[in-house]
Amino acid sequence: MGTIVIGVLIGILYTVLNCSPGSKFRIGFTLCQRMIFGIIGSYLGIVIRIMLSIVFFASMSWLGGLGIVVMLSSWSKNYMNMDNTFSHSVNMTRRDFIAFFLFNVIQICFFKIRPEKMGPYVNGSCFITFIAILGVFGYELHKCYVLTGGPGPLWYESVDIPKSEVGWIWLQAVTVFYGAVSPNCTNMSDYSRFSRSSKQMYWGIVISVATTGVMIPMMGMVTASNTLASYGTAMWLPTDVCLRWLRENYSPMRRAAAFLCGFSFASSQMTYNVIANGFAGGMDLAGLFPKYINIFRGAVLTALISWVCQPWNFYNSASVFNSVMASFGVMMCPIMGIMVSDFNLVRKRRLRVSHLYSLKKDKDFWFTYGINWRAYLCFFAGTVPGLPGLAAVVNENVRIPTGLFHYFQNSTIFSFICPLILYYLICLVSPPQGAGEIDEYDYFDVFSEKELAELDMKSFQDGCDSEGVIPSDRVSLVDDEGNILSSIDDNKKSQVFVKSETV
């Protein structure tokens, strides 16, 4: 439990720090990558995040499908005991595939909802899921105490670890816990940009993550110990527990309980997956191909490509997927460290947002041929030392030096702190252009009067002429037809509209 608490605290810290660019300047993850890696160099961070969105979308979709399995099984005993016509080489049953397919179809319907409108669905699903988890936890704990008089054998199980390795094992446990959620912490700007109050957002993150991040894993471990004592098998998925109820006694009461739990688990997986992976992948793909892809198309594309990952192999075979998922922090923590260093230390929380949309060589984020070599150097400096450890996790036959494996064990901290400090030191020697500068006008018309005063920025109206148009000599982003421009040619220099909806 101690490692979970530490992992939660680190997760809260990293999440809050990565919210800053979005909450302060209303920019998402894609623009944050342009800020640190450069207009062209940003493809690195965006592509990495897209790949992780696809993998995680597949994984969460499979788990959500298991919730559908419980719901349909509570309706029909024939469905629960459906004959499997798939080959034994396929690591799923026909029953599970039907539920997985239905879950994906329903998810795609939710992609039509705008991200900022998902709040009620998220809050509702979180509430009913928390109630369902409490129900499963309470029932199994009571049953275990009646049978054995205690919480089960796992609660008392001890592990013999050499004293010299205790500290490193603790750090590795923290890395495993945090690594699996690091991709979602990295792109928090995609959602913090919609916040109405930074203070309320930060307190919401702290309270919600601290509460559920500790309670849910604790209840999961206790329930696994309970089920080991009650059924002879430790069950780590609540859907497995619900199916066990139905197999033991297909009574109306158990069917109703299983349905409500299955609905709760499926709904929470759906809202989480749509926001954390579907919309995230859609936003990143839209950032790469804005002319052809919007958030909806990108989210659908993420969902379709995720089938290639074959998520049924993640949980139904002896794969190393879970270990690899827990190691994603090796790649994501350096990006977070550089982002925090660049925005807070180098730029002093000030940047010219209009320059993030320009390919002109004299703009702040063109750097060197569109690439910020400082960020690339720090990214590889923070990532490369952790890759041998990742290889050792994937293949037990790989032998690496102890120092490199210790770096991997504590990559959550090392891969964040080292790039953060290194980037700041490099920028002291070779400062990037425009560090600490800010736009003269609110070109995107997104800030309130209070925010404009805090930023020392003039309003959008102050920058417009009598016709409500920003003259082209002040900014060059969007032409008369609403198309985003990398630069403006001589034939389109008359008027340039800059509206947040267009950009």
UniProtKB/TrEMBL annotation:
Question: Where would you say this protein principally sits, based on its record?
Answer: membrane
Q: Please report the record's description of how this protein sits within the membrane.
A: Multi-pass membrane protein
Keywords recorded for this protein, A-Z: Membrane, Transmembrane, Transmembrane helix
Name the domain of life. Answer: Eukaryota
The answer to whether UniProt assigns keyword Transmembrane to this entry is yes
The molecule here is called: Thiamine transporter THI72
GO molecular-function annotation terms? nucleobase transmembrane transporter activity
Q: Which organism is it from?
A: Pichia kudriavzevii
Q: Which family does it belong to?
A: Belongs to the purine-cytosine permease (2.A.39) family.
Pfam families the UniProt entry points to: Transp_cyt_pur
Transmembrane intervals: 43-76, 97-115, 121-139, 201-222, 295-314, 320-345, 366-387, 407-426
Give compartment(s): Membrane
GO CC annotation terms, alphabetical? plasma membrane
PANTHER family given for it? NCS1 FAMILY PURINE/PYRIMIDINE TRANSPORTER, NICOTINAMIDE RIBOSIDE TRANSPORTER 1-RELATED
